[in-house]
Design brief:
Blueprint lengths: L8 E5 L3 H12 L5 E6 H6 L3 H11 L3 E6 L8 H13 L7 E6 L1 H13 L5 E6 L2 H7 L4 E6 L2 E8 L4 E5 L8 H18 L1 H9 L10 H18 L14 H10 L6 H18 L7 H11 L6 H4 L2 H5 L7 E2 L2 E6 L7 E6 H10 L5
Parallel strand pairs: 1-8, 2-3, 2-4, 4-5
Antiparallel strand pairs: 6-7, 9-10, 10-11
Helix pairs in contact: 1-3, 4-5, 5-6, 6-7, 6-9, 7-8, 7-9, 7-11, 10-11, 11-12
């Protein structure tokens, strides 16, 4: 990630524990201590965690492990407060670093805790889900949810390094893999037509051990290119939210029973349908994408899942600007466009453009 003095490497592959620890050690310099924040589910099911912690303890000082609540339960202010209290009790100072290990919720938690503890300490991430590897761990957006909506409290805080060991995916349920592929499809749609075409032509093959690293790397490159141009979302970075305006509303309305990637799948279907209705998106792209997402075992039944009550939640979307929402459209694969749409008009058109099941 080329961001001047905040630049960092993103490593993607299947690594031995010593390799992961070596990459972290090289990037973290000489910390006074290392706090490993790990999703409790990863700690319970992954055989790769204990060797990784042992490798870190062999290389770095004062390595201690704190287990975070599973999944979205870690993404709230109360959970972050507990982590900061623990960091203080263990004596971690400003030269200490956090290493976040887990899916998108855990990496968001780790990054936000690092951003606010002692007004900011360094951190690194080891994503263990496909979604976290291709999206959540890269780019420096950290944050938590509140009752009003998803990711409404957070900070921009770039990691020192990201090491995506795809070996962790071996214990990932098929549903979680599918959720990660939603973000891969998004990356292709907004910035890499070849990636979109490759996934479309060989949907399940992209999960093979030979193909997956290249697919993840391609999706990460899309995000790196966008973030490098607009780190703090003053302009173009908003294209990364394709499918998220409605997706976040659907996800929150489900009580987070829907996975993030599942909600984004529905949001992309709705956004493409709206784009076609407004003449922004090329005809047929919505149907193509819907067929691909269904093939990947992602939900596409927008008609049955989107209601006026859910659309009302867009009012608290981060991309709202007064009475308008900056909405992301995809005119064709590999391209994205931002349109400021009056809130009321957007809500009405999203409901009107819902594709039939």
């Amino acid at each position: 990630m080329p961001l001047g003095e905040r630049s960092y490497d993103v490593h993607v592959g299947t690594f031995a524990s010593d390799e992961v620890a070596e990459r972290l050690d090289e990037a973290l310099g000489e910390p006074s201590g290392v706090a490993v924040l790990v999703d409790e589910h990863v700690a319970a099911v992954s055989p790769r965690l204990s060797p990784l912690c042992a490798a870190l303890q062999a290389r770095l000082p004062r390595v201690q492990v704190l287990r975070l609540p599973r999944g979205e339960s870690a993404k709230n202010l109360a959970a972050v407060e507990r982590t900061c209290q623990w960091l203080a009790e263990q004596g971690y100072d400003r030269r200490s670093v956090i290493v976040g290990v887990g899916g998108g919720a855990a990496t968001d938690h780790a990054g936000f805790a690092a951003a606010v503890y002692l007004r900011g300490i360094d951190f690194a991430l080891c994503p263990t889900t496909l979604l976290a590897a291709v999206d959540a761990s890269v780019g420096g957006k950290t944050g938590v949810d509140i009752a009003a909506g998803k990711n409404l409290v957070g900070a921009f805080h770039q990691p020192r390094v990201v090491v995506a060991d795809l070996g962790f995916l071996a214990t990932l349920p098929a549903r979680e893999i599918a959720a990660g592929l939603a973000e891969v499809v998004k990356a292709g749609l907004i910035g890499d037509a070849e990636l979109f075409a490759n996934v479309e032509s060989s949907a399940q093959a992209v999960l093979g051990p030979a193909e997956l690293p290249a697919v993840v790397a391609a999706a990460v490159r899309v995000k790196i290119e966008v973030v490098t141009e607009d780190e703090r979302e003053s302009g173009r970075r908003a294209v990364l939210n394709f499918g998220h305006t409605l997706g976040h509303a659907i996800e929150a309305a489900s009580g987070y029973e829907l996975l993030h990637g599942e909600a984004v799948s529905l949001g992309m279907v709705a956004a493409l349908a709206l784009g076609e209705a407004r003449g922004v998106t090329e005809p047929g792209l919505a149907a193509r994408t819907r067929a691909l997402l269904a093939k990947l075992c992602l939900p596409v039944d927008v008609q049955t899942r989107v209601s006026p009550e859910i659309v009302d939640r867009i009012e608290v979307d981060k991309k709202r600007r007064s009475d308008k929402v900056r909405f992301v459209f995809v005119p064709r694969p590999g391209a994205a466009a931002l349109h400021d749409i009056p809130l009321l008009e957007l809500k009405q058109q999203l409901l009107a453009a819902r594709p039939a099941t």
